[in-house]
Amino acid sequence: MSISLEIFGDRWSLLIIRDLMVRGYRTFKEFQGAGEGIATNILADRLRKLAAAGIIAAEVEESDGRKLNYRLTKKGIDLAPLLLELLIWGSRHGDTEAPCALIEQMEKNRAQLHSEVRRRWEQRDPTPLIPRFGNGNKSPRSE
Amino acid sequence: MSISLEIFGDRWSLLIIRDLMVRGYRTFKEFQGAGEGIATNILADRLRKLAAAGIIAAEVEESDGRKLNYRLTKKGIDLAPLLLELLIWGSRHGDTEAPCALIEQMEKNRAQLHSEVRRRWEQRDPTPLIPRFGNGNKSPRSE
DNA sequence: AGGATCACTTGCAGATCACAAGTAAAATTT
DNA sequence: AAATTTTACTTGTGATCTGCAAGTGATCCT
Predict the structure, then answer these.
(1) Res. B30: pLDDT tops 90
(2) More confident residue, B46 or A133
(3) What kind and span of H or E run contains A75?
(4) Is residue A86 helix, strand or coil?
(5) Which of A38, A72, B58, B131 is most exposed, with the fewest beta carbons within 10 Å of its own?
(6) In chain A, which residues have their Cβ closer than 8 Å to the Cβ of B10?
(7) pLDDT tens digit string along A125-140?
């Protein structure tokens, strides 16, 4: 456990991983703009550390040699359950106005969400996960 | 999620919570000696912040007026799933020599572990959780 | 060729951290 | 009752880390 915390025991690493996993972010620019305002030197440092830990990997985009695409590794994807619990706890106990029904649904369908995240990763599907949460492939409700 | 990370997005907070939850630690002294060596000022600061966030609460021990007993609140106990996933991930991907069978068992019995942690909390049972993991009340195997 | 974009790096002030030492209150020993 | 010990901290001090602004160099766009 302390091993895990040495890697992402800080305010930013897990947010980066979240953006990578559920928002489909790929590039330095996206991380920088989107989070709650991470400094560029810190972002660079975190990306370096996460890459060194084998959680993410970078590759240059073919169509644009400037761009680096960051991507989660298997080791990174395996953090999905952790992120989900973090999200659930935060929604339940943080004083956010999160839709309760959604959270409950997520709690009931943990395993399904995990496999959904994994599927997207395997298929390199970059569509954000957030808008459609619990209605993946079970009962197509309206909205 | 960023809310959660603001509270325990550092190297020590979650370790303190772990010690509280699975090792049955209660006092300043125990935290200080046990962790991997946290500085006393940092420990004091983290305990204060966790208390301010409503994750732990302190009460003086009757039998010894010097001692403060820290205890998880409901909000704190709800972190059990998060901690468990952290542990699972760490054992699987950190290069620790963790017993694989144990980890697998924990993965299969997530829900059971959660309720076990909760039961101990409700009954104020301070026995460490670690030695006996997956064989709680199902099939009493030998060791 | 000139400018914009991208992924960083550098410099610096201020915050945070680790380590050692000290303090106040309660308990224990003498 | 006085002296010592234990417990939970606080206080200093230097080192490290963070956040912000301003570059830098490579690559694209026109």
Answers:
(1) yes
(2) B46
(3) helix A74-77
(4) helix
(5) B131
(6) 9-11
(7) 888 886 544 444 443 4
